[in-house]
Specification:
The complex is a heterodimer. Chain A is α/β, with parallel strands linked by helices. Chain A is built from five helices and six strands. In chain A, helix 1 packs antiparallel against helix 5 and helix 4 crosses helix 5. Chain B starts with a strand and ends with a helix. Classes of the chains: A alpha/beta, B alpha+beta.
């Protein structure tokens, strides 16, 4: 059996761990709130943009290379969004599992399947297995900004427009709530515009609208904006999910530590009482012997 | 009822603000929008956005570049990726930006896209300087 001192030390170290996990939980909660704020701020912009694109494409019959799907998809670029740091439960594991499964299932069918990693975890995993990415981005959670997303989006658009890939897909954790994230795989390019909500007759959107410079040029601008925004949205959601996942992971860790401390304290007290009893018996029997 | 929404991906700058007039820098020049303007969609250029708030008559000014504006019978929606309010502009910083961009522009190694981007940066900073100095010049 472990000595009293050993148990004491284990209790202390568990307490330290508990303090750290508690602090990390609080930090994640604060960061999560900020990330959620980002998502809500973006919504009006996204909604307005989507509405206008749907309206224009429906009334003006405009097509654009970014919107037209290729006949056969042979070359795919998979963008994988993970975090830079661990300690966030299944956040990264789920994404990596999904991406790896996608690779095993689809690479025999495709001519080319390349990866683009955002976040260190995903990059580490695949680099270890000898899979190189065409590009990597780190430090997403530090300064998630529209500028950063725009930079990434422009690179992706160039890869698509120069004909290297027929389709660009994105795997990320969609933010549902602080405790649940869903692995989502989206087709980023070609852009799919929803036409469902649009009713050409009933809309107040006039067909005699003035376009400056031209409907085509405007659609091109809007599609690029829309694409930048989708990348920004995915990044924001992923960051929010990361903090949410870390928060619940740390909450669990804190609870486990608490349970462990309780158990250890019980063992400690039992051992202490046993020791006292033994000592008492020894003293009594010693005193008896002297008589 | 003529309302203005000014939105960026990162924040809602102005939402449902009743206005009487707006001057918008579109790609082909400044456009003055009054209530009852025909519906219009235009790409934005780099320039100064101005609008007059209905109740107070206060004039709001900011530098915007890249984005689009939509005018419909209910009002104006402006979506832009980059906005600088007048209060946020620092003249020294803007001057430094202009100088830096100009130095970059004289180099020959820039690609077309980089050249375009640097030019926009220079223009944005210059418009910012103009906006800050506007009052001084007029009075």
């Amino acid at each position: 059996m472990a000595s009293l001192k050993d148990i004491r030390m284990r209790i202390d170290s568990t307490k330290n761990t508990q303090q750290i996990t508690k602090a990390m939980k609080l930090v994640s909660a604060a960061k999560l709130r900020r990330a959620q704020h980002n998502i809500t701020n973006m919504r009006p912009y996204a909604v307005t943009l989507k509405k206008v694109i749907a309206n224009i494409t429906a009334t003006q019959k405009v097509t654009h290379p970014l919107m037209t799907a290729k006949d056969s998809v042979k070359r795919v670029l998979l963008v994988v969004l993970t975090s830079d740091r661990g300690l966030c439960g299944g956040f990264n594991t789920n994404i990596i599992k999904f991406a790896d499964k996608y690779r095993l299932e689809n690479s025999p069918k495709l001519e080319k399947l390349d990866f683009f990693f955002i976040g260190k975890r995903g990059d580490d995993f695949f680099t270890k297995r000898g899979i190189k990415s065409i590009e990597t981005y780190f430090k997403l959670d530090k300064d998630i900004s529209y500028g950063l997303a725009k930079g990434v989006a422009e690179k992706l658009i160039n890869h698509y427009l120069d004909g290297s890939y027929d389709e660009i897909r994105l795997v990320y954790n969609e933010f549902q709530s602080a405790i649940s994230q869903v692995v989502t795989c989206e087709t980023l390019l070609p852009i799919q515009v929803e036409k469902t909500s649009f009713d050409a007759e009933g809309s107040q959107f006039s067909k005699d609208i003035i376009f400056d410079p031209s409907p085509e040029a405007i659609v091109e601008e809007l599609l690029k904006k829309h694409f930048n925004l989708s990348v920004y949205k995915a990044m924001s959601e992923s960051v929010a999910s990361e903090h949410g996942a870390r928060m619940s992971a740390m909450e669990n860790a804190t609870n486990n530590a608490k349970e462990m401390i309780n158990k250890l304290t019980l063992t400690y007290n039992k051992a202490r009482q046993e020791k006292i009893t033994t000592e008492l018996t020894e003293i009594v029997s010693g005193a008896e012997a002297i008589k | 009822m003529f309302k203005l929404n000014l939105l960026t991906p990162e924040k809602k700058v102005v939402v449902d603000q009743e206005i009487t007039e707006a001057v918008i820098p579109t790609i082909s020049g400044e456009v003055d929008i009054l209530p009852g303007h025909v519906p219009m969609i235009a790409n934005l250029g780099t320039g100064i956005l101005k609008f007059k708030v209905k109740d107070t008559g206060a004039i709001f000014k900011a530098v915007i570049s890249s984005g689009y504006c939509e005018v419909n019978p209910e009002g104006v929606n402006i979506l832009t990726e980059s906005i600088q309010l007048k209060e946020e502009i620092s003249e020294e910083k803007a001057k430094a930006q202009v100088a830096e961009a100009n130095a970059k522009l004289t180099k020959e190694s820039l690609t077309d896209a980089q050249f375009e981007e640097t030019l926009t940066d220079a223009k944005k900073a210059q418009v910012g300087i103009d906006l800050v100095n506007e009052n001084i010049r007029h009075h």
